[in-house]
């Protein structure tokens, strides 16, 4: 009964995992190495929290709850980065560890965006093209990234609340189970001791 009732109270349903995987896919497409590492760690912690919920290990859920605070801080930084708050620049190579000049995948593939290219001059026999600009975007890519991070913050806050709730449920059930004597094996032997002696006496008679 304890397993069936508490397994339904898992604070890590599929939307939490799907949101993390969706964020990871688009960061991979844009070669954003810092967000890729952060998302990978986030997915591991979400799985750890799910395992702790199923196996009734509050410590794992506490780890997830602590991580949500770090995750919220990281996403606030991403919002500030794309909005260029505090001297940050969305055109910098900070998120790629200064090893490439890649930007967000949405910068070229956002809703309505059309890439404008021109043939390279001075190179004979090559059909290569040189990237010029992106036009016609219905929404600037930095706002898409801001919405992604805002959504992650909202999910993290919901996960934190449910994680605290499940930890409190586990703690209450363990306290009530100890009070009843669920972990004390001696009463079982004392209760069964007297009837067994009576059965032996009856068999000898």
Automatic annotation (TrEMBL):
Its main location: membrane. The chain crosses the membrane at residues 33-54, 61-85, 151-170. GO terms for biological process: regulation of sodium ion transport. The keyword Cell cycle does not apply. The keyword Hydrolase does not apply. Pfam families: NKAIN (PF05640). GO terms for cellular component: plasma membrane. InterPro entries: Na/K-Atpase_Interacting (IPR008516). It is found in: Cell membrane. Keywords: Cell membrane, Membrane, Transmembrane, Transmembrane helix. It is a multi-pass membrane protein. Belongs to the NKAIN family. This is Sodium/potassium-transporting ATPase subunit beta-1-interacting protein. It comes from Nycticryphes semicollaris.
